Amino acid sequence: MSRSSRRTVVSACIIAASLVVGMTTASAEDKPADRQQVYAAAAQEFGVPQSVLLGVSYLESRWDTNAGAPSTSAGYGPMHLTDAVAATARGSHHGDGLEDPRGDTARPALHPHAGEPDLNAPSLRTAERAAELTGIDQRALRSDPAQNIRGGAALLAEYQRDLGIRSSNPADWYGAVARYSGATDTATAKSFADEVFATIKQGAARVTDDGQSVRLAAQPSATPNTGQLNELGLRQTNQAETECPRGLGCEWIPAPYEQFDNTYGNHDLANRPQSQKINYIVIHDTEETYDNTIRLVQDPTYVSWNYTLRSADGHVAQHVKAKDVAWHAGNWYVNAKAIGLEHEGFGADGSWYTEALYRSSAKLVRYLADRNDIPLDRAHILGHDNVPGTVPSTVAGMHWDPGPYWDWAHYFDLLHAPFHGVGTPAAGLVTIRPDYAANKPAFTGCETAGQPCAPHGSGSVILHTEPRDDAPLLVDLGLHPDGSPGTMHISDHSSRVETGQKYAIADRQGDWTAIWYLGQKGWFYNPKRHPTALWSAGLVATPKAGKASIPVYGRAYPEAAAYPSNIPVQAVTPLQYSLPAGQKYSVGLVAGSEYYWATTFDASNHTVVRGETRYVQIQFGHRVMFVNAADVDLRPSMLP
Question: Residues 122, 83: contact at Cβ < 8 Å?
């Protein structure tokens, strides 16, 4: 038998085996096909080194299936085959709701409209090509892990053929791996391929979200032929202006600072950190394709953020220098002291984030935190959903991205700042830390209002008014002013805590732990054998003796006497919550009062107003908030 005939027979056998795998997977009563064998079979069928196939898949999905749900960049399955039409992109959260991204009443509110996303980028349509190469229907490529892996292997093999390279040595597949990233620039393709080969060198092993054990044996000698990168014909990017760590694929795409219609946009010039310390990094998702997001941030009449990160390959574009103030968080006090990162995503509605995105973001945040002396904790690395409303009227309209499916525990592992517990319950605090894969809250409204979301791992933990699962949820007067309890709708975080956040222990009964939350006692299931929180220690704030309750604020603005005559006084308005006597809340930081007056195109008129009032940032609910330092005592969290 000729070599080509033998290869045809082998391929036919493997295809038949794959179809059998798909049939057995379809039955809930049968044991799922061994995922390790599926990778091995696909690698052999298409002539791809198994370590390369495993390494690429790990960087796309960490080998997870995500139950057939799309990623934030319309990618499906372990190989992240993209199908933007099936994923049905949604409009931008910057155009939804009532939030003014600038968050400053000194200027008219901005409620920009994003327009329709562009779904035609090749990086959003790879499932289509995989279907042509394999003859497998796109629906099967999206939903069947075995066929998805075959589709990814077929794409890698085609990319290798296009380079004209015949080799079974993983080191000779660097160019194909770089192309698989979907990157259009050399720096990002290199960053992606370098991460894949670093994974191959180090090895990896984990249990996937559907219970499959997969292992990539370490190959320390796998030194790739990086010269192949030059054969891809990718564009070179302008990295000279960027504030990014070395080795991360970044480019400078500036947001415009322009005058128009007697006003200006889309950010403010400043001189941070000399003018104001940068305390926060805010994590957003875009609710847009990457390409459309880039078009939006280049519109002077739109809003801005400092960086955009692309999902499929982790590419980074910087738009606003760290010294300047972007308009992104919906709270001017936070904006003036924050750097905003937008991550490509179509909504926190059951979609997932790629490993490439997590890794690029973590590298960038580590770099920015180090440069600006920002602690790597959840009091300083905020989700947009943790930023407070400025005054009572803005609370309900604040955005809630990146949502309950952002994996904060994995993200902080990549930041080299994992969440650790200390001691016993007597330490007085808990750090929320459920098992992301196993923790699947019963959210509703991902696709249709009132309908259950598909089960999905989450970093969110639900709070109840009593220590039982069927007890009502807590009340958030900002979201439900009528006093009705919170709901399980995907965007309703009335009674929801998030991984990494710290709260003061209020009570314990059996497997249930209570914390102080929005002035209430909130209970969550926290069994000893499988805890959803870690015992922790730190500082807590509690009302001073003699105060029945104290006000809570959404911004740390100065007292009226601090303002010069040419700058209007900004009201220090309490939110609709209060902090009762006897309750304790975890302290994130203690800060002076500041207001950045910036309402003119001429930055020489901009002024930082500083007052005598000092504030304490606390983890009051799902969002951080502020209390006047004169109203509270700060104490160690240890319980008596």
Answer: no
Strand blocks (E) in 253-375:
258-260, 263-265, 267-268, 280-285, 307-309, 316-318, 325-326, 338-343
Fold topology of 11-83+125-232 = Lysozyme (1.10.530)
In the chain, what is the straight-line distance between the N-terminal and C-terminal CA atoms, in Å? 82
CATH class given for the domain over 238-418: alpha beta
Q: Where do the domains of the chain lie?
A: 11-83+125-232, 238-418, 420-530, 541-636
Distance CA 44, CA 51 (A): 11
H helices present in 27-124, as ranges: 35-46, 50-61, 84-87
> What SS3 state is found at 409?
helix
Amino acid at 552: V
Whole-prediction pTM value?
0.91
Taking phi over 0 as left and psi of -120 to 50 as alpha, with beta for the rest, 347 belongs to left
How far is residue 350's CA from residue 285's CA, in Å, rounded to a whole number?
A: 13
In 3-state terms, the chain is what percent helix, strand and coil (to 5)? 30, 20, 50
- pLDDT tens digits, residue range 13-61? 333 334 333 333 333 344 557 999 999 999 999 999 999 999 999 999 9
φ/ψ of 81, rounded to 5, equals -75, 130
Q: Tokens in use for 375? A: 């602690």
